[in-house]
Every structure is written in structure tokens, then in C-alpha cells.
Design goal:
It is built from twelve helices and eight strands. It is an alpha/beta fold. It folds into two domains: 236 residues, Alpha/Beta hydrolase fold, catalytic domain (Rossmann fold), CATH 3.40.50.1820; 83 residues, Rna Polymerase Sigma Factor, Chain: A (Orthogonal Bundle). The protein has an eight-stranded mixed β-sheet with strand order 1-2-4-3-5-6-7-8, sandwiched between helices. Strand 5, helix 3 and strand 6 form a beta-alpha-beta unit. The radius of gyration is 20 Å and the shape is globular. The two termini are 28 Å apart. The model has no long low-confidence stretch (mean pLDDT 95).
Length: 329
């Protein structure tokens, strides 16, 4: 993991954040023209180590081929894995997805990147991806938002509100509870039934003390996040997601989409409850109606929202075909 000092950044809320540092990982070599870069934007609780959590996609001979491309992933502004966030600045100002993207742009400028061949990411990473294409249209040649939206939906804001309430009502145990809620939204009915069903963890338990395997799994996931993620970063990033709206200050979403110059691969998931496929198709169609070059693909998976992290083979094919069709391979 490397860290770059990117200096001061002006935030959408009207204040400036001084001495910002961004943690990042880079794979491959930037060419002399600075135009062979690919940017990966990470989801809510992950980090810059994309070669770990997206391992099937990154490396020599893979779809994001590090022999050809300079692949970068940074921990978001407001995160807790090396970048400036609430753990370093108290009180930490309100940030938005747009602020995260501006911080990434300052990082790329420091690294000498002149053009992104592709920016991609899912969920919160997808929010950043579409914001990149709108904010820096001439800098982004292709973009691939996945399981995401141009404006956070009422359903997604509602889930975030419940998770935030869990933390605010119980600062000690609330993050674990928020994670349990989140995990329910990230998976599908089919997956939970196949993996857990009504399986009981304690076979000899009384009816009163019956403990189901699904309960044990959620407890484990809550405890696991508690051990690795800062609660104030979690709150900060949830709020940034709630506020995400590509049309804010730009005359609305349709006008914002008009700014895009990149060719777009929009990826939905057939079992996603958080960003349902009908929402994904709607955004792809909005782009199409705006005259943009857009390809819509849908992952078929029992993994629900998290399928973009799991279905490496399907996703690799989508991206490979997209790069080939748009001259990137």
C-alpha cells in the first residue's frame, strides 16, 4: 500500500480539507503518454487492495491485464484504510461521492495519469464510476458502473437510515448490527435458503434457546466488521451515498448524463434487492435515450447484490467483450 499527499481539497459542502492523503495500490506500469490507466473504485467496506477482493479480474493475462494497463485503486476520501478520514480529523466535514472523485483525480494528476481507458466499480464504487464519467468527461474513455445508480433510491436510503440509526442508538454494538442489516440486503433469498435454510446450530437446544445457522452467520459478519472498520467512517460513507445525485447542480440527471463522453458498460444483477435490475435497466435506457454508447449486461447469480464481487468469470467476459467492441483490446 502506498500513500500520496494530494494537498488541500475543496469540498462540496463549502469547506476545504487541508493536507489530504490518499492510500492506493497500483499494478502494472504507466506508459510515457500516461494514457493506459484503469481506475477501480471500491465498495463501502473494502479498500485499495483490489488485487485481493477482485483477484479474478486483475493481473497478467486477465481482463485488467497488468502487462498492458496501469491499474489503480485508492481508498476513498473518508475511508479508514489509509486515506484521510474521520479518524484523523475531528470533526470530519460532510463529504460526497463527488468529493471522493475529486480526490481521486488529484491523486491521478500526481501519478501522471492523463487519460483513463476504463473506470469501473460496483455499489458505492459504481456511484463513483458514473460520477467520474460526468465530472471528467474528456478524461474517461470508458466506464463500467455495476449494481449502482445515478441517484440513490428511496429504498437504498431507507436501508442506510436503519443502519445509521443502529449505530447512533448504540455506539458500542451498533456497527455490528448495521453490518447484519447490510448483509441481508447484499444477499438473495435463493442464497440464504440454499446455504442456511432452517438449519439449527444447536441440535439439542430447547425451543426457547433455538439458534439458527443464519443467526450465527450474521453475528460472525457483524463481529468481523467491528474488528476492522471505523464506525465514524461507516457513518461518513453512508451519508455520502445517500447524497449521491449526478444531477445536483447540473440541471438534473438527464442533463448530467448529456455530459458523458465515455462508452458505457452498465452491469446489473438479476437477484439484486438493493439496486434491483429494473433500476439498472432504467439507467442504461436513460443513457441510450441521451444518445450515448451504452451496453447493458446482467449477471445471473444467486449471490444478490454482492455478485459483482463473486461472479468473476461472468464479469470478466462482460468486460472483455466490452473492451474488444470499443477498441480497448
Amino acid at each position: 500500500m502506498q500513500t500520496a499527499a494530494i494537498g488541500e481539497i475543496g469540498l462540496e459542502c463549502g469547506v476545504s480539507l487541508p493536507a489530504v492523503e490518499i492510500a492506493y495500490e497500483a499494478y502494472g506500469t504507466l506508459n510515457e503518454r500516461g494514457d493506459n490507466a484503469i481506475l477501480i473504485c471500491h465498495p463501502l467496506t473494502l479498500d485499495a487492495q483490489a488485487d485481493v477482493w477482485w483477484q479474478p479480474l486483475i493481473g497478467p493475462g486477465k481482463v485488467l491485464d497488468t502487462r498492458r494497463y496501469y491499474v489503480i485503486c485508492s481508498n476513498v476520501l473518508g475511508g479508514c484504510a489509509g486515506s484521510t478520514g474521520p479518524q484523523a480529523h475531528r470533526p470530519f466535514p460532510l463529504i460526497t461521492i463527488r468529493d471522493m472523485v475529486r480526490a481521486q483525480k488529484q491523486l491521478l494528476d500526481r501519478l501522471g495519469v492523463k487519460l483513463l481507458q476504463l473506470v469501473l466499480g460496483g455499489s458505492m464504487g459504481g456511484l463513483q464510476t458514473i460520477e467520474w464519467a460526468v465530472t471528467y468527461p474528456s478524461f474517461v474513455k470508458r466506464c463500467a458502473p455495476m449494481a449502482t445508480s445515478g441517484q440513490l433510491s428511496a429504498l437504498a436510503i431507507g436501508y442506510n437510515h436503519v443502519m445509521r440509526s443502529a449505530i447512533e442508538n448504540d455506539p458500542v454494538h451498533g456497527l455490528a448490527l448495521a453490518r447484519k442489516i447490510g448483509m441481508i440486503t447484499y444477499r438473495s433469498f435463493e442464497l440464504f435458503e440454499a446455504r442456511f435454510g432452517r438449519e439449527i446450530k444447536q441440535e439439542d437446544a430447547s425451543l426457547q434457546d433455538t439458534w439458527f445457522q443464519i443467526e450465527s452467520y450474521l453475528e460472525h459478519m457483524g463481529d468481523k466488521l467491528n474488528g476492522r472498520f471505523d464506525v465514524n467512517s461507516y457513518l461518513c460513507l453512508l451519508k455520502a451515498m445517500d447524497l449521491h445525485d449526478i444531477g445536483r447542480g447540473r440541471g438534473g440527471a438527464v442533463a448530467a448524463l448529456e455530459r458523458i463522453e465515455a462508452e458505457v458498460l452498465w452491469v446489473g444483477i438479476d437477484t439484486d434487492h438493493l439496486y434491483p435490475p429494473q433500476e439498472q435497466r432504467m439507467w442504461a435506457e436513460r443513457l441510450r435515450q441521451s444518445g450515448k454508447q451504452v451496453t447493458y449486461c446482467e449477471l445471473s447469480s444467486p449471490y444478490g447484490h454482492d455478485a459483482f464481487l463473486v461472479e468473476g468469470q461472468q464479469l470478466s467476459k462482460f468486460i472483455t467483450d466490452f473492451l474488444r467492441e470499443t477498441g480497448g483490446n
